[in-house]
Amino acid sequence: MTRVLLAGAALLALSAAASAQTVGFSQIGSESGWRAAETTLTRQQAEERGYTLQFSDAQQRQENQIAALRSFIAQGVDAILIAPVVATGWDSVLQEAQEAEIPVVLLDRQVDSSDDLYLTAVGSDLVHEGEVAGEWLLGEVGEEECRVVELQGTTGSSPAIDRAQGFRNAIEGHANVEIVRSQTGDFTRAGGKSVMESFLQAEGGGENICALYAHNDDMAIGAIQAIKEAGLAPGEDIKIVSIDAVPDIFQAMAAGEANATVELTPNMAGPAFDALEAYWADGTEPEKFIQTESRLYTQADDPAAEYEARKDLGY
Amino acid sequence: MRRSLQRITPQLLTLAALVALVTLFFPNFISISYDGTRFVGPIVDVLKRSAPVALLAVGMTLVIATRGIDLSVGTVMAIAGAVAAYAITSGFGLPATLALALLAGLAAGLWNGCLVALIGIQPIVATLILMTAGRGIAQLITEGRILTFSNNDFAFIGSGTVYGIPFPTILWLATAILVAALMRRTALGLLIEATGINRAASALAGVNATVILIAVYMASGFCAALAGIVATADIRGADANNAGLWLELDAILAVVIGGNSLLGGRFSIAGAMIGALIIQTINTGIVLAGFPSEYNLVIKAGLVLVILVMQSPNLSADWFYLKTLISEQRTARAERKEAS
């Protein structure tokens, strides 16, 4: 009897491997346009590869995510993707997944649990993003003097701290490039605009500002409006570099009002699925952290086409 | 006129002291120039940037005068902004867009007013409902993204100028003056104060307190919608997640700094307007002075604390007592001198 059951189980497992894989995806919620785009791209990637995607929206609550994970485990999915809302409190549910031999891939954010409880984490290196932005500016100004103003993200948030650090790492040792003013714009357009207005007032109507570094595109878009209203030409009088690569910044770049953006790709699922396929095929363990590319886009990269490609992703 | 001026003297002095303080750190603070099309200068920015909080504070003053509070105004800003951006991108004209956004604000106020006046829920709880739920409504309208538009007529409300003066400044000044005139040139202000001091007694005296209450919440919703329109027009997009976020607290603070009591009764819209200017002077001043952003909230809280302590009725009573004591001693000493 036991043998029959085992054989049956093996047969079932075989047929499951042969047919479409089922992947559970626990998303944080709809906190930002970027996250909506991440969801859209995860669905697209799953569809292209012929997976069945079980999607669960946690509405920013950890208990919903844990419940979703438990239900994925009960359904016996082939893999779980999770964008964890907080860093702590995942040990027991990750343990359950491990006991059920379901690989878990973390998207975009990290957890504090031991790293043998999950297969891998896919994410962006926020410090590196800042470095890419800083290096672009160094290449752009050469040896000329450049006074930079910085629009920081929400004070104390990890993207704000890391993106500030990365930019400083890049310009360190280059005495010609200097951050003269730095304030938080809370990652919002309105914040970016009002703080930029004050920066312009404080720096001789903007004449003493050579470049703006914004921790996200939305603040840069707000600042562009402030610069225009002050009678200056954004992108020419003041160079503008920001991070995220949301559709609207490509529109600004196409109009010559922004110069460069560093992409925080919402396609975290692509690398995750690649790692999972290798794991399913022959049990290859990927690295514990897969860093996504922080690609730089400038006005030379056909921003109009990039805008068209991105505008329907749900940003 | 002279009496109301006397009433807001402490606020005016505070504002002047604050401007002097910021000028100490940033000497060009009070310089204003004209660049051919518009006035430019930090003071002009303060007058423009204080528009949302000032508009909210007009409505909030009336609500607070009835011993109520409206926590939903920040959210109503987001809803009105979302409605306006949705309407203008769907091809409605500017008048229809504005009408729809203002109607949304009035509807939100009606909802709050009915909960408070008809059902009798405490104002802080009643308006908390919309504060929490409303942002979701705004997000449903914008589908969670920043809804941008390129209509220049609508953008004018946020960033245009009339005779070189920013339009938002004109809007909040006009709103404040109109509402203050309506309150003081008619009996409306008196009726609101009566309702705030004792609703039951004023109802017995023939004041239709229920209608008054609903009306002030609708006025607050209307002002919040105006603020939402300004904020949306300013960035040419409706940001449902962030528009008006925490501004209800700034509005309440402006009303309180303006010398109005949260216990209702007598109110001064002029005081609340100066309160809004004080808050914006602090915000702009911190950025201009170039402090690191970690200090923003600490500096703001410190200054607000100093302002409120200086306005404290207990302290002013002590001060008055001290003054009379000193003058009494002086006369006593003078009398002794004369006697000897």
List keywords for this structure.
heterodimer, A: 315 residues, alpha/beta, Rossmann fold, six-stranded parallel β-sheet, elongated, B: 340 residues, mainly alpha, ABC transporter involved in vitamin B12 uptake, BtuC, two-stranded antiparallel ribbon, 16 helices, 6 strands, 74% helix, carbohydrate binding (chain A), Peripla_BP_I (chain A)
Low-confidence stretches of chain A: 8-18
Compute the number of structural domains of chain B: 1
Identify the CATH architecture of chain B.
Orthogonal Bundle
CA-to-CA gap between the ends of chain B?
48 Å
What count of domains describes the coordinates of chain A? 2
The string of secondary-structure elements of chain A, in order, is HEHEHEHEEHEHEHEHEHEHEEH
**Annotation, overall tally of beta strands of chain B:** 6
The main pleated sheet of chain A reads as: 6 strands, parallel
Task: Describe this structure in a few short sentences.
Chain A: Keywords: Signal. By secondary structure, chain A is of the alpha/beta class. In chain A, 46% of the residues lie in helices and 19% in strands.
How would you describe this structure to a colleague?
With 315 residues, chain A is of the alpha/beta class. Chain A is built from eleven helices and twelve strands. In chain A, strand 3, helix 4 and strand 4 form a beta-alpha-beta unit. Chain A is elongated and about 65 Å long. By secondary structure, chain B is mostly helical. The mean pLDDT of chain B is 94.
